[in-house]
Amino acid sequence: MNGYATTKRHSEGFQKGLGFLAACAVGAALIFTSAPNVTVLAEESTAPTIVDGDIASYHVTEGETDTQYINLSLTFSEPVKITDSTALAGEMTFTLGGTAIPAASILSTELSEDEKTLSYNINMGFAAYSGLFVAAANNTVVVAKDDSTPAVFDYKMFMPNGLTTKITAQNFATEETPASVSTEILRPDDCTRGMVHWVLLKNGVPVEPLNSYGANAVSHFHNYLTMTAAEIAASTATALQKALGEAYTVTQDGAMITVTAAQSEPGDVLELHIMSYLNNGTKIVDKAEFLSELAAAEALDSTLYTEDSMTALTEVLKLISSAKDSVYYSQADINEKLAALETAMAGLELIDNGSEEPVDSEESKEPVDSEESKEPVDSEESEEPVDSEESTDLGSTNNTDAEDTDGLDGTQKNDTVATDSDTASTKTGAASGLATGAVLITTALAAMAVAKKRR
User: Fold this and answer.
1) Among candidate residues 106, 141, 158, the one where a domain is terminated
2) Are both 58 and 98 inside the same structural domain?
3) Strand 142-144 relative to strand 117-124: parallel, antiparallel, unpaired?
4) β partners of residue 300
5) How many domains, in total, are found in the chain?
6) What is the pLDDT of residues 279-335, one digit of tens each?
7) Closest Cα partner for 154 from 276, 48, 23?
């Protein structure tokens, strides 16, 4: 999520106090603001600024002692260099929940190979009250690699404690059914102590009212070593119901929380999230592939696909489209919505037209079929002198064919009949000639016999 864009779109929220900055970072929960005492640099020189950040917490148990740690990475807009590594920790001003982190708690610092990302490992030796982490500095030792302009440190976000959520069921509102969402709380073993900030989104935007942290409700994960997902779900459901009032009904079953709207407009979609926790606090959200697939799905011709497969895709589109223009989604959220869309697209089935398909109808019009009845083989067989009666049968078949083609080509019919008549005449003439010859030969033989007898 782009923290700058969020800050611009929701500037009114800042009137609620510093905590409301978190509303600009639901999902990614990373916030950048302009430091009030930053000196405007000369136009020909641009200071490196933080363009992305990742933060996560974990704990390590050794015997009876458990220690919590923070991993922090700050990525700058251009390569930087460290001019004095020994002075680096002393120039940093890190606070968590309003409490300063001593320089001695910064255990290590490392610059990435591309010289753009500065990583810290920090000992968190106290309870992270609100979880709001702030990185600032009167910096002189982290400077631009090219011109030694000091980098600007201005980073705020709510630190994840390890809890995550997964939406297991979602119903968009219809004329008869209100919008609802069921969210499961996932509790890894490495969770740390912290306040958990919850936000209910309707159509991609937080519902009112919001508290000073920019959330709808807060639950407490104090006993982080033994507290179960079901226990945190129970306390969260209570806090959400109190905050949302009669506009929503909140129920809890094990680690599952279900929120149902009392009233909805058709198409409304609800989502319940933990601020900043779903992607461990990363700022940059890449929606390019998601938006491309979404546009392709919306442009499909629904008449080409079966009703069931198209209905499944339409329902997915209703559930995920709110992420198209919203700034309240983390990269993890976008990835999940993209996966759901790809699954629905892969399930599309083309309509099978069967015998009604154009290919079949064209095949029935192939000239091969009509030409077969005109094959010369049939006419040759009719000329066999032995099968004179077969010739008559064939002639009647030809007459039937001629009747079937009435109205198509009368001239062609007449030509066919004329051909049959000529053939019959030829056969009759040949037979008459043979008979006459036989009579003459018989007469001649008889005359020769009589003459011989007279002698």
Assistant:
1) 158
2) yes
3) unpaired
4) none
5) 2
6) 334 567 889 999 999 999 999 999 999 999 999 999 999 999 999 988 888 888 899
7) 48
